[in-house]
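User: Need the bound-state model for NAP:
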Amino acid sequence: MIGNFVSTLDGIVSFLIPGKEGGGEISGHDEADRFIMGLLRASADAVMVGVGTLHATHPRHLWVASSVYRDAAALYEQFRKEVLAKPEPPFNVIVSGSGRVDLSRRMFQSGDVPVRIVTTSKGADRLRVAGASVLPTTEVLVLNHSDGAITPATMLEALHAQCGVRMLLHEGGPTLYGEFIRAGLVDEMFVTLAPQLAGSSPAMPRPNMVWGTEFIPENAPQLRIVSAKQSADHLYLRYARR
Ligand SMILES: NC(=O)c1ccc[n+]([C@@H]2O[C@H](COP(=O)([O-])OP(=O)(O)OC[C@H]3O[C@@H](n4cnc5c(N)ncnc54)[C@H](OP(=O)(O)O)[C@@H]3O)[C@@H](O)[C@H]2O)c1
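Assistant: Bound-state model below.
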């Protein structure tokens, strides 16, 4: 599994200001960051986000390459179809235990991308009432029959078994991503380091890349750097698990 994030120099991944929550505000809408994100999406079998990230993103957004960097849409499509032999767009996977998902969004209504909502049986009940069963290309995967958290390993196994997903791209948010990091399931991380400082305050802390999960020095995940690239003041870092 591959993770992709953009972070400020002080490690913040969201300003948490309504309308200015997305990664674009963190990267300064940096072109190279968007190109890399598009290339990762063009390569992936599925792109996963938590429902917190879904709701912080524009309602018309699709988790496909062309949505993040339109200028290279034709190149991405050619690469995906001709080099990787993947004719379909990646599955867009939304994780929500509660099933509180805004189904009016384009990704659910348009039929443009295959969507899987990963949830609990309680969440599935809520989604059924909200009309999920009549959405054109959306299916609900019930992966926990109580209303508790679904383990990352269960998610990966189900996506592999039911959708043939081998390369999963994880785009956050930090709560869901932290669980995958703790489970040791992130093989590679692409991190763009943006040249700005966001700060934070004890009253309303802003999240960093791993949120709600903590380590001690004895079990902190160790990474090795695969590549480091620079464009103007941004750094584009690629790490692999040791
Ligand atoms: N800078 C970046 O690269 C970047 C990337 C992504 C996101 N972000 C930002 O991060 C913020 C959102 O992050 P977030 O941490 O609040 O939200 P998140 O991780 O996207 O979503 C959290 C939600 O996911 C569901 N979830 C998580 N773990 C689960 C599990 N094990 N089983 C079942 N459901 C699970 C829960 O939904 P329910 O409550 O429905 O159960 C939980 O409330 C936004 O501001 C976004 O813009 C930044």
